[in-house]
Amino acid sequence: MSDGGSLATVLLAMFAGAIRVSTPFLFVSLGECLTEKSGRINLGLEGTLVFGAMTGYALSLHTGSPWLGVLAAGVVGSLFGAIHGYLCKLPKVNDIAIGIALMLFGTGTAFFFGKAYIQPQAARLPSIEFGGWSENPAIQQALEINPLFILGFLLAVAMWWAFKNTRWGLIVRTTGDSTPAAVALGINVDLVRLYATTVGGFFAGVGGSFLSLSYPGSWTEGLSSGQGLMAVALVIFARWNPLACFLAAILFGAAGALGPALQSVGISEGYHFFNAAPYILTLGILIVSVSPKRSLRGAPAELSITK
Amino acid sequence: MQGELISRLKRSGEYVLMPAAAILISGILFAVFLLFLGKSPVQFYELLWRGGFGTSFSWQNTLIRASPFMLTALCVAIPARLGMVVIGGEGALIMGGFGAAVVAIPLIGWAPPFVVIGTMVIVSAIAGGIWMGIVGAVRHYRGVNETISSLLLFYIAVSILNFFVEGMLRDPSDPNKPSTMPIGKENMIGNIPGTDVHWGLIVGIVLCVVLYFLMNRTTFGFAARITGGNLRAAQAQGLPVGKLILVSCVIAGAAAGLAGFFEVAAIHGKANASLIAGYGFTGILVSFLARHNPLVIIPIAIFLGGIAASGGLIQRRMDLPDATVLVLQGLIFVVLLASETLYGRFRVFQLEDSTS
Predict the structure, then answer these.
(1) Which of A116, A142, A169, B287 is deepest in the core (most CB within 10 A)?
(2) Interface with A, mutate which of B36, B87, B145, B160 (most A CBs under 10 A)
């Protein structure tokens, strides 16, 4: 009985943890997916995520409305995205290097302005409680789902559908797959990439606001443990498919949640290997599925990391 | 003869003046930022100067910080000559420092210090070299992008360090911070006589010079630069592209691994999470500012070391957060990269030939 009980506890904790941990992954990877689909990579999303977290928290503190914080985080995120998009469009400018530079600049600026927000308590995003039917408090707690997770899921479905079925989706895909083809169709390639990077930055900013407004739910300098950079790996892992991004985010989240879940029942061995698992998995998948002769299935051909 | 000299001067003038102008413009932008916040830019730059270069004390502080910047910048610069953007030098630094501490533990007490230190140096270079070697290998054999793989390996290195430091190899007598056993005072390398600066500075400078000669004056370096310039041409010439990629990555990782050795053997005396200090990421900035030229890395690393060293003074005197210098660094980096687009745009630097 006690074994079954602790297994259930671990599974429930993992389920809840996976949803919590995966939400920022989900947003930032959807943003990266959109940007990469247009043929450009943004490594600066880590900075955008951290800056979004700081902005969201500050706005929530000053206005008392966490949702205003989410919106503001998205807006500053799109600003970062637009700067990246604009700079990368200049000739001879390397998008990978600019991304790293903006990552440093974004985290630096977030820490600079965020110093004042480490102590005070801002209003946090409320969770939606799906667990009312159960008497078990553990189940109730596990089914407290944050609204951004649901929004992220809907966004993933919408993006998946839009890439397939809409004119805009086709334009973005064409731009990412072949610049000459896009130019021949009369598409303004630079403009499409600028928009894709800007909107991608918006998503990353929203993902950041989740970190400070929901889980862990306060602003500290160490709140992002590289989720923004991991999104790049996650998108490769998901083969540039928004629905797969959703599943991959859950998987990455579950791997991150497994360690703490096991710790809660007294198993602390291997905690750090669970943390490393997604990275090892992604590297393994890259090694197995890429070859010098052909690029990854589903990869935008204009993307610098797969060319 | 004279014409050739002038054109060479013009060419190198562009490479010196453009980054200088980029730094100047970022300085002006940062001054505007400070004015916006109601702080005095004049006071800021005065303190920056005093904290980084004003006194012999601040110079020593600057040089201590410059040493890991040089070594991690080499980790970016050498593969960059082959056209690779490696950003995971921090991972090689961690593995180097961790390897050095691990290999020292069983030797402590019975082996003479020079044996312990010698072993640590070799192991840290090998550990870092292997770590970046993986990046080169998966790039060559599987075509995996080196930026992504080096980044993933950085996170894996962090997990490996934490796993052993908090588990098997944790020093039980240190309750504060999970660390390996200390390597012992007698096994730590001292400072350069008469200073507070450890030997990492000298090693950094020597390696920069040696690798400059390797990349610019040897067949290996020439082949590497051809590969970076045009991969197809290099393959068509029958150059051993794979070997070049692997060897450059191993050299790069060994340099970053040595940075880890100095962190352990000169600063912390043990391996713990203090190794993850962001030196690898600053190294990227240093290398790009130096346009991946190992000789230029030396002054740039000292320049950025000075900015980093002045952080504390600026924080205390101007009541600014410690991230202030990070903002300045980030700004310099962004402006510098954006300025790449202006190369070849200014008539002053152009060679006067029929095409212009």
Answers:
(1) B287
(2) B145
- What distance in Å separates residue A238's CA from the closest CA in chain B? 15
Residue closest to A270 by CA, chosen among B164, B181, B175: B164
Element of type H or E holding A145: strand A144-145
Contact B211, B293 (CB under 8 A): no
How many whole angstroms separate alpha carbon B259 and alpha carbon B275? 10
Query: In chain A, which residues have their Cβ closer than 8 Å to the Cβ of B320?
Result: 112
Question: Is there a contact between A94 and B340 (Cβ–Cβ < 8 Å)?
Answer: yes
- Chain B residue at shortest CA distance from A291: B142
> Chain A contact for B288, CB < 8 A?
yes
Q: Within chain B, what is the greatest distance between any pair of CA atoms?
A: 75
Q: What is the ipTM of this complex?
A: 0.89
What pTM value is reported for the model?
Answer: 0.90
According to DSSP, residue B196 is labeled: S
State both tokens at A279: 């990275």
How confident is the model over B67-94, as pLDDT tens digits? Answer: 999 999 999 999 999 999 998 899 999 9
CB contact under 8 A, B337 and A94: yes
Q: Does A243 touch chain B (CB under 8 A)?
A: no
List the one residue out of B307, B287, B305, B282 whose CA is nearest residue B297.
B287
pLDDT digits (tens, 9 = 90+) for A166-202: 999 999 999 999 999 999 999 999 999 999 999 999 9
Three-state secondary structure readout of A157-176: HHHHHHHHHCHHHHHHHHHH
User: How deeply is A170 buried, as exposed, middle or buried, from its count of CB atoms within 10 A (0-12, 13-18, 19+)?
Assistant: middle
